[in-house]
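Need the bound structure for pyridoxal-5'-phosphate, inputs here:
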Amino acid sequence: MGDPLHLIDRDRQHSWHPYTQAWTSRPPLPIVKGRGVYLYTEDGRKILDGISSWWVNLHGHAHPRLNAALAAQASQLEHVIFAGCTHAPAIDLAERLVEILPPGLTRVFYSDNGSTAVEVALKMAWQYWRNTGRDERRSFITLDRAYHGDTIGAMSVSAASSFTEPFTPLLFPVTRTHEPYCYRCPVGLERSTCQIECLNALESLLRERGATVAAVLVEPMLQGVGGMIVWPAEFLAGVRRLCDSYGTLMIADEVLTGFGRTGRMFACEHASVTPDIICLSKGITAGYLPLGASVATEAIYEAFLSDDRQKTFFHGHSYAANPLACAVGVASLDLFLERDVLARIGRLEQQLREGLEPLRALSIVGDVRVIGGVGAIELDSNPATDASSGYFDEIGPRLAAAFLEQNLLIRPLGRIVYFMPPYVISDDETAWALDTIAKVLRAI
Ligand code: PLP
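Answer from helper R.:
Posting the output first, comments after.
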């Protein structure tokens, strides 16, 4: 750290690796091959990808069907400008998404990663109110411990953290309110007896200044970077209800949760909620290529439909709707149907529960949280302390190194250890990973 040259890890690569140097002070793993749930290193190691390669991989690495879809599309059209031109993979994927998204989300706007999907949603919400003559709606409400990406707008709507601190003067102001973090309840209650009182703070804000709010932005059901915080579905339902009552838009950032990660195709389904805009990326291409989509309702789309150029949504990225990415996205959705992937995630969820719940007996374990294909263990048995400030807690790199010694790739978020494998992981592989996690945690 300090000297940026330290970030140039290998002379022949001359590349900067996000977080790696600061995080582990070890050189990055040279990966030469991926197959199924495994990554293979230059020196012949076979490592189980326990974090789906930054939460993107769904059906395993180098899946033959996805490889074939990619090759077929590459031989036809690798890329074309998506302003004034269109192509079958973009149209097919948009149609397929609209079929499976919560009802009412009908208009797909493509970009090229998760942060840009969020930027697009924020700009779209902001301009929606301009275009409809409600200029006073200019602010955003987001949640404590939120994470929405690393670009300036996405950082602004994320919680203040070590990630955003160096850039604070560049960020625009937003209003933040409680997240439903049951283990560290922001209003000091117990989930078994509470009535989701953590929602009252949002209600108060909307009561006070609802008429000036452009949108409320949430990561439904699972706040990822903030600590793998699993929500009660009632909170999500409550956000939609309050947005309706106070006439503001609801944006759901499903960059992490989309495409089955929480056990439903989209996390909003847990509360049968349709947001006004949903942000998608990561799993949209099953981990193959960068692609983002911000999908809006007809009402939002219509606010931009005009001969008045001032009402145009001026936002476009060079690689928006890349045909290779869209073709793989369509093939991935085929796999979901043909292989009944959601049922597989249901079984994985069960196995994660059975494997992780017993770890509560360890004195270092404070909480165990499981949703869909994600299992998390909070290593802080005192809910009164604040583990979220512990991203740089030395236990994270120490555990990561111990997992890696066992050939399991897991990157704890400070004191939050989580396992989020590709869905193709077998029962035996899951059992091995869960045993390895238990073995490593018992040894610390
Ligand atoms: N939103 C959420 C909920 C995320 O978890 C992430 C990344 O982890 C992003 C947005 C940003 O996505 P990307 O890294 O593709 O920019």
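Comments: The radius of gyration is 22 Å. Residues 113-115, 118, 147-149, 219, 224-225, 253, 255-256, 281 surround pyridoxal-5'-phosphate (CB under 6 Å).
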